[in-house]
Amino acid sequence: MFNPRSIAVIGASRDPRKAGYIVFRNLVENSKRLLGYKVYPINPYAKRILGVKAYPSITKIEEDVDLAVVVVPAERVPLVLEECGEKHVKVAIILSAGFSEVGNIELEEEVKHIGTKFGIRILGPNCLGVFDSYSGVDTIFLPYFKVLPDGRRLSSLPRPKRGSISLISQSGAVGVAVLDYMASEGIGISKFISYGNKVDIDETDILEYLLYDDSTRVIMMYIENIERGRRFIEVAREVSKRKPIVVLKAGRTPSGARAVLSHTAAVAGIDKIYEAAFKMCGILRVYTLEDLMDSSKALAYQPPAKGNNIAILTDGGGAGVMASDEAETLGLKLARLDEKTRQEFRKLKSSGAIVDFAITENPIDLTGSATTEMYEICLQLLLEDPNVDGVILIVLHHVPLIVDIENLVHRCSKLIKEYGKPTTVGTIGGSEMAILLRRMFNEKCIPAYTSPERACRALAQLVKYGLYLKRFS
Amino acid sequence: MFNPRSIAVIGASRDPRKAGYIVFRNLVENSKRLLGYKVYPINPYAKRILGVKAYPSITKIEEDVDLAVVVVPAERVPLVLEECGEKHVKVAIILSAGFSEVGNIELEEEVKHIGTKFGIRILGPNCLGVFDSYSGVDTIFLPYFKVLPDGRRLSSLPRPKRGSISLISQSGAVGVAVLDYMASEGIGISKFISYGNKVDIDETDILEYLLYDDSTRVIMMYIENIERGRRFIEVAREVSKRKPIVVLKAGRTPSGARAVLSHTAAVAGIDKIYEAAFKMCGILRVYTLEDLMDSSKALAYQPPAKGNNIAILTDGGGAGVMASDEAETLGLKLARLDEKTRQEFRKLKSSGAIVDFAITENPIDLTGSATTEMYEICLQLLLEDPNVDGVILIVLHHVPLIVDIENLVHRCSKLIKEYGKPTTVGTIGGSEMAILLRRMFNEKCIPAYTSPERACRALAQLVKYGLYLKRFS
Q: CB–CB of A434 and B147 under 8 A?
């Protein structure tokens, strides 16, 4: 599915507005760029599409076909799937909609039956399929750009760069929206899988696949229900020991569950059972889209924490208070600094390396007099302190002496990497300085957020995952 | 304080790196631009500053001075304040730090005493003072721009445009960070007040002032403690009936309270008492910086709701589920649509105006086939429904037929204004389309957010405030 040698796009189209065109074009372009798989357009009415010879049926292709991407109207799916069977295709991604999600249950059963008969593994139907940043397989039939009536060409669904997060989404729309966010934030992806009505391949199969996928280090899931609960738990348990799984399970309230029933015709289930199951297998559950994205970024960029004692370093007292409140709410503890650290802080004050009215109890407040040097020296003390398991670094760039933020980011991130203690960054604001500051930290894999609380929640996930891993060490 | 005819900047400086320069320059420039107040630089060593005649002491100015802005070192503050007293200055904003916040309690007492003796109202010390977007009074001594070592000139603390939100902040750093955010988001401000150590003017005085300030319609507060609790409640009660107050009370946990003690030497107090007091006087309490900003934007842009029955309109089922979950968690109800509305939806389906697989139970899901026309017609039905008190409008722009977003925003916001029912917008993503979509909605005063849950939380505040107001109607 992710590394086919050859792909047939059944329903490839010459009309740029059609899904069959977008998918075929993306595959052809990525294939050229990456010197990858071969792509065959299947269309009984076209001789060539984008210069590539078209076939009236997949059965007319002489070479083997590993993967079929199906974009024909729902009622034609059984026929083309039969042909895939004759052709011994291994996997079919059925993008077409119009099955159980609109009440067409019989048609879906037929598709399922054909898959079983020929041993074709099926992803979908009613899905967006997959995006693999490494192999270039991209079946998302939504355009990168849109052109407004006034002629402006705006990015609409940029694909994220290569990275270590994989995203499994029961909702295609939520999935691509997260891709949009990741691309814009510069967060890399490994694989995206939208599995729609899951007649065959489901969340558990995908999770199991990702366990062995070396380019995936963090797994992000949006799900509305889980079909094979017992097996899911078994698999998730194994995965969690090696890679964190962050799950947004929607339909957690009665209102949400009713909405799930309308949306995917799935039974959202009793939330307490999900909660318990997730806990059992080390899944990091989040409750909002923002937390899903924030947590995954932190887990992709930073190591898990060894304990829940954290330190906060700030140049604004109020931001330190907010982070402290959030930390305690999340079950984190403000580390009691080691005697040696306290001594060092006293020395820094008496030598004038930090201002004498700086607060050197955790949260450490450098005040509006903060400089890059003060940040560096204090961050080092905190990272060195054996009582500190992780750090929330708050940088409000507005203070007078924080100007050369590139240097600040360089020095701080060097230390953070050196000590290997998880650190997240909290900033506030949308000015050019604020945006650049966050981008520079993110580029150094120090996850930066737009509020002290978000930085705190992200660190809390690194703590939670670290504590889970401890059970097995 | 906000509309002085004349201002003396005591400690005005010629050195561009100094607070005394930044404040003086901002005041002079704003005064020219707005044809406002007169500004006098006070500096015994300078003849002229920025071309304006300097005075060695405020007492040497012949004309009356309404407001003194004090930026001299802490130990010189008593002396210059005495001179302000002789000059019959009404208000002094003391920006200087180095008082009780660093243990210098005696000096602070002296300042307080001088103020009382001469009847000078004092804001501060250890504060950023005020910013008034209407009169142009701006004592924030932090620069608009910063210049990086490579020569790039980046916005660092842009001032927000004129608007209807006023911000009271016990923390200067948090205050300016919020200003940065507001400016970048295009959210307007009326007045910003940072009151620091509050030797005289405190949060209650400011709140009372804002009650009668016509340009303030929403009040946003960051506080760590309240001094005169009883009076605060009396005032807040009166204010809440006319303008919503959104409060982030930091130091709500033991860790946070300890941090408050270090930060402002204030006692954060028992949080349950604050919680009860806020509830009693209709204050909308928030727990994170993001909610503070999101709620204030919603309250500034949209009317309060008449009840807690909301409708959700989306083009992505998953986003609708997430919003439903969040709504129920916040105590909102998914409105049961009126029979007439249901009938209309059925008609829309049979006429083909909306696709027949659209979900017309609340949350309404137009699916990936959504068009601007479908959004318009369905939004109108929901706004018209007597069972619906407010709407969460979720627009995921990635779907194929949502292209002309300007038209979409225009049509939807026209309807929302026409019906006067509070509506918030949820989007996802950071692509150019996503950013433009949010900006256009925000410009039409339809508050737009980066996730379904944030849009939901914002609407919940409009509901909460609306229900509070109902008590008095």
A: no
Q: In what order do the strands lie in the sheet with A218-223?
A: A129-132, A189-194, A162-169, A218-223, A245-249, A284-286
Partners of residue A404 in chain B, C-beta under 8 Å? 148-149
Q: Are A133 and A188 in contact (CB under 8 A)?
A: yes
- Dihedral pair phi/psi, residue B136, rounded to 5°: 90, 0
Fold for the domain defined by A142-301: Rossmann fold (3.40.50)
**Location of each CATH 3.40.50.261 domain in chain B:** 142-301, 303-470
| Spatial CA neighbour of A77 closest among A48, A39, A49, A115 | A115
Distance in Å, alpha carbon of A422 to nearest chain B alpha carbon: 21
Rg (CA), chain B: 25
pLDDT single digits (tens) A183-236: 999 999 999 999 999 999 999 999 999 999 999 999 999 999 998 999 999 999
Q: Across the interface, which of A146, A180, A403 has its CB nearest the CB of B430?
A: A180
- Out of A149, A318, A433, the one facing B250 most closely (by C-beta) is A318
This complex has an ipTM of: 0.95
Query: What's the one-letter identity of residue A106?
Result: E
Q: How far is CA B407 from the centre of its chain?
A: 29
Where, residue-wise, is CATH 3.40.50.720 in chain B?
A: 1-126
Q: Which phi and psi angles does A106 have, rounded to 5°?
A: -60, -45
What's the rounded mean pLDDT across residues A334-347?
98
**Rounded distance, CA B442 to CA A346, Å?**
49
Contact A317 B171 (CB under 8 A): yes
The percent of residues above 90 in pLDDT, for chain B, comes to 93
Assigned superfamily of A1-124 = NAD(P)-binding Rossmann-like Domain (3.40.50.720)
In the CATH scheme, what is the homologous superfamily, with its name and number, of domain B1-126?
NAD(P)-binding Rossmann-like Domain (3.40.50.720)
Closest-CA residue of chain B to A102: B357
Q: Which residues of B329-359 are buried (b: 16+ CB within 10 A; e: fewer)?
A: bbebbbbebbeebeebbeebeeeebbbeebb
- Kindly determine whether residue B156 and residue A368, on different chains, have CB atoms separated by under 8 Å: no
Q: What CATH superfamily classification does A303-470 receive?
A: Succinyl-CoA synthetase domains (3.40.50.261)
Burial of A347 by CB count in 10 Å (0-12 exposed, 13-18 middle, 19+ buried)? Answer: exposed
Hey, are the CB atoms on B289 and A452 less than 8 Å from each other?
yes
Contact yes or no for A259 and B17 at CB 8 A: no
Mean pLDDT of B420-436: 97
Distance from CA of B100 to the nearest CA of A (A): 11
